[in-house]
Amino acid sequence: MEMFFYLVFGALGAVVAALELSKTNKDRINTSSAFNSFKNNYLLVYSLMMAGDWLQGPYVYYLYSTYGFGKGEIGQLFIAGFGSSMLFGTIVGSLADKQGRKRACVTYCLTYILSCITKHSPQYKILMIGRILGGIATSLLFSAFESWLVAEHNKRGFEQQWLSITFSKAIFLGNGLVAILSGLFGNLLVDSFSLGPVAPFDAAACFLAIGMVIILSSWTENYGDPSESKDLLTQFRGAAVAIASDEKIALLGAIQSLFEGSMYTFVFLWTPALSPNDEEIPHGFIFATFMLASMLGSSLASRLMARSPPRVESYMQIVFVVSSVSLLLPIVTSVCYRLH
């Protein structure tokens, strides 16, 4: 029966991938061989970096629980990671511009590898250091690589419209296909090969090390424009002025913050919610299914946005209602189960 579910999942994933690739083929743009080589190099590195990140996600809570930590202590570890990402995220962009984007990408690899290594220790303080390092690495992942890509793309004189090709494929691979495969691979390591919950972190470190070697051997350094760099206080002041001058910016920020808050809560609670009595569950496979659903949503959103005119407000209302109901379902089913 388990194999049947894997086959169905694989077939569904293949259909989604085929739809995405056919959509890309319809909008194919003629590019140069030099650009294709540059693009493929970046996509390979970015996929390895995202694999190093996605492999860890399904097993963080589970690993901590196997070390004997309760929900409160695990919550503190999660908060430390989120807080580290929040604090470091405010300065990582300007630091990368000044110190070099390539150097920042290598720092991401080293920081995340060190974070993975700490997962071998059952000591709370060591794990806390690992969470802080992981938060720093997350901030670097979602800033340094894209800024390096944009600067390097322009430095090499490629057509501006070609940049969207690289970004769209990076999203398809990094946030879609790689995430799904990472979940399945993690499940294979932990459940099929019985290597334990720390195995995905070791695999992540290997992927990160391979990507770092490629960066060091094939990427060139680039920096931000010193004339455009601003100190942190000036950036916050500019943001405050923008929020105060336009109500829509403030409302958009509030909506984004609330949505991200719900997702962070979900990231922390989905493991204990699915195994309240420490039942054995296929963490990687569940995560891969979730990411496949996310990929389907992205594909659906792109088709809705292609309509003229795109009614973003109407779509987002539906998204928030469906998301809220989905997050309420576990509570409803749990209450019904207890009543019966």
TrEMBL record:
Organism (species): Citrus sinensis (Sweet orange)
Principal location class: membrane
Superkingdom field: Eukaryota
PANTHER family linked: MOLYBDATE-ANION TRANSPORTER, SAM (S-ADENOSYL METHIONINE) TRANSPORTER
Gene Ontology CC, one term: plasma membrane
Membrane topology, record value: Multi-pass membrane protein
GO molecular function: molybdate ion transmembrane transporter activity
UniProt-recorded name of the protein: Molybdate-anion transporter
Compartments, record wording: Cell membrane
Keywords assigned: Cell membrane, Ion transport, Membrane, Transmembrane, Transmembrane helix, Transport
Matching InterPro entries: MFS_trans_sf (IPR036259), MOT2/MFSD5 (IPR008509)
Job of this protein: Mediates high-affinity intracellular uptake of the rare oligo-element molybdenum.
TM region(s), chain numbering: 6-22, 43-62, 74-96, 129-150, 170-189, 201-219, 249-273, 285-306, 318-337
GO biological process: monoatomic ion transport
Pfam families for this protein: MFS_5
